[in-house]
Specification:
The complex is a heterodimer of chains A (311) and B (275). Chain A has helices spanning 44-52, 74-79, 97-109, 114-124, 126-130, 141-153, 171-186, 198-204, 225-234, 297-303; strands at 4-15, 18-29, 33-38, 59-64, 67-68, 82-85, 159-163, 190-194, 207-212, 215-221. Chain A is an alpha/beta fold. In chain A, α3 (97-109) packs parallel to α6 (141-153) and α8 (198-204) crosses α10. The radius of gyration of chain A is 19 Å and the shape is globular. Chain B is an alpha/beta fold and 275 residues long. In chain B, the strands form two sheets. A six-stranded mixed sheet of chain B has the order 7-8-9-4-10-11, sandwiched between helices. A five-stranded mixed sheet of chain B has the order 1-3-2-5-6, covered by helices on one side. The longest helix of chain B has 18 residues, at 205-222. Chain B is globular and about 55 Å long. The chains are: A alpha/beta (311), B alpha/beta (275).
Chain lengths: 311, 275
């Protein structure tokens, strides 16, 4: 399909008198994976909420598949095929795991297709199968997060916006979730991923957009992003954590607003690590072609700075 | 039963006799069990923390980490086992009394007052620590922070990096900053044991590294013990003396960070395909 699936032009937003976004412009192609990165408080979650209609845009325009959805309510945007998994746990506490999944699936794909989607979700996340009768509110925090992700990974939308993907998840589950993302992307789902673990998301993204104090400070190919992000986000912090905590993010970067469209990138394999097989060595349970031939983000986990190999 | 108190030497405390070689653990939880309906969330779990020691508690989602926190702090009453802190048996003690003994915590799901400013969160914690009735005057709008209270609050704000946001209502903060508010609030209480539940969630790499540094410095400078639940393994590596691994309500490993991450069972259950 030609043309972008999402176009933002000079989007701004505010909470009462607090201005959170300033003239943000970006574009996501139909087959794109865009990483939205930036320091804590930079406006990433606000931007995600504005796109999906949870927070009204104060200015600018948002186009989804060519339609102006700037003033659409969130439920209408969701029905059009854009799904947003916010940070935290978007589940029904008083419904069981299976009921949570069924409500989500039957609404989006109909009752006939729901059993198949349930099977995919349970295969991808066995912990949900083990606890299918348990009330959502009695799951652990991480399991609730898994449930909220399973609702979208088993039935991919046209565009998935996922906020703080790895929040509260054990490393082994983060691996599975990233495999799931790649699998649904293989089925034609475009992705806008907000993630603090930048190495993870840059390993699967085509493009990266850096937000600084509510504005786009840099945008470009994900493979070029690491050094730029270090300059913007890390500010030369030492590896031993001696840098002081900074409430305002310590951003000294100029507002070099780049509004050029995000174009389709190259292949997914932008990881500096060697290409690795999927966990199972076969297709991912969430469908698609799996992550075969793709440099998996968990490769970074082995060789990256966040985890010393015992070997 | 899994007994996990290992002999990691505690840093020399700065204030008072907080323990030392051969001293009883500051926190001693023995054979803690709790069930939710048909699910055994914790099965005969024993954990101890020495004064001035930092212990990491890691494990897969649903392992029981937060449930254990809630049992230790008094939010949940276990079905079996006993918890003692500094020689006090806590089993029938409500959460607020445990806090007065010097146990402070942060929450997996942030618990803040959206309308209050960052500084007001600290002042409330400061006044609760002092326990001289000033908090009740505040509730009646008759209180006014004293200079010494403000000085301590400002020091904590600086420590956690929230000075420039001191007057911002918490409702306007990001998740990561809310977690720092929780941490600062806990530190205002000058805890003898800080229990932090996923404090780095929502923080970027720099902030997480700095947070680990803050926890380490407070632990070492003030002899504060730390029990840390965290999925960021780099933070665990830098912030704790030893690690306890929970899985499905039971302890499956414990020891130094290096020994734990090399444990095949831990890698299977928690770390994933990293071998």
């Amino acid at each position: 399909m030609s043309g972008p699936i999402l176009e933002l032009e000079n989007v701004s937003a505010a909470y009462s008198t607090y201005r959170a976004l300033f003239g943000v412009s970006l574009t996501i192609p139909h087959d794109g994976i865009v990483a939205l990165v930036g320091s804590n408080g930079a406006g990433k979650s606000t931007l995600a909420r504005v796109v999906s209609g949870l927070v009204p845009a104060a200015g600018g325009s948002i186009r989804f598949e060519g339609q102006d959805v700037t003033r659409w309510p969130a439920h209408r945007i969701a029905r059009a095929g854009m799904v947003h998994v916010p940070e935290g746990r978007a589940i029904f506490s008083s419904l069981s795991v299976e009921e949570n999944l069924t409500v989500s699936f039957s609404r989006r794909i109909g009752r006939k297709q729901t059993p198949e989607a349930l099977a995919r979700a349970y295969q991808a996340f066995p912990v949900l199968a083990e606890r299918r009768k348990q009330l959502g509110g009695t799951l652990s925090g991480g399991q609730q997060r898994i449930l909220s992700l399973a609702k979208v990974l088993a039935v991919p939308p046209k565009l998935l916006i996922v906020d703080e993907l790895s929040l509260g998840l054990a490393p082994v589950i983060v691996d599975q979730v990233y495999e799931g993302l790649l699998a649904i992307h293989g089925q034609g789902c475009a992705l806008l991923v907000v993630e603090q673990q930048v190495d993870r998301v840059l390993a699967i993204a085509d493009r990266a957009v850096l937000l600084v104090k509510g504005a786009v400070a840099w945008e470009g190919p994900a493979r070029d992003a690491r050094s730029t992000l270090e300059a913007h986000m890390l500010g030369g912090a030492s590896a031993n954590g001696s840098a002081p905590l900074s409430a305002n993010g310590s951003h000294s970067a100029p507002r070099n607003v780049v509004t050029s469209p995000v174009s389709p990138g190259g292949p997914r394999s932008v990881s500096p690590g060697a290409a690795g097989p999927t966990a199972s060595g076969g297709p991912h349970p969430l469908g698609g072609s799996g992550a075969g031939g793709v440099s998996h983000p968990s490769d970074l986990w082995v060789v990256g700075p966040n985890f010393p190999s015992p070997n | 039963m899994a007994e996990v108190h290992a002999g990691a030497p505690a840093p020399a405390p700065v204030f008072g006799a907080l323990g030392g070689a051969g001293a009883a653990p500051l926190l001693d939880a023995r054979s803690i069990s709790i069930r939710f309906g048909g699910i055994a969330a914790l099965k005969d779990v024993s954990v101890s923390v020495d004064a001035g020691e930092a212990v990491g508690l890691v494990g897969p989602n649903g392992a029981g980490k937060t449930t254990l926190f809630n049992c230790l702090c008094g939010q949940l009453r276990p079905n079996g086992g006993t918890v003692s802190f500094d020689g006090h048996v806590l089993d029938d003690m409500p959460a607020h009394m445990r806090a007065r003994l010097g146990i402070r915590r942060t929450f997996q799901r942030v618990e803040v007052f959206p309308e209050l400013s960052v500084r007001d969160h600290m002042i409330v914690a400061e006044r609760a620590r002092r326990g001289d009735g000033a908090l009740w005057k505040d509730l009646l709008n008759k209180g006014k922070a004293r200079p010494e209270e403000l000085d301590h609050v400002e020091a904590v704000l600086d420590l956690v990096g929230l000075t420039e946001m001191a007057d911002v209502p918490v409702a306007a903060l990001s998740l990561g900053h809310c977690r720092l508010v929780e941490l600062g609030r806990a530190l205002c209480g000058e805890p003898r044991l800080l229990m932090a539940d996923e404090p780095s969630s929502g923080l970027d790499m720099t902030e997480t590294a700095a947070l680990a540094g803050v926890l380490r410095s407070v632990q070492r400078d003030q002899g504060m013990a730390v029990l840390l639940v965290e999925h960021d393994m780099e933070m665990v590596r830098t912030a704790v003396d030893r690690v306890v691994v929970l899985d499905v309500g039971e302890i499956i490993a414990q020891g130094s960070f290096e020994s734990v991450v090399a444990d095949p069972e831990v890698r299977r259950a928690y770390l994933g395909r990293t071998a």
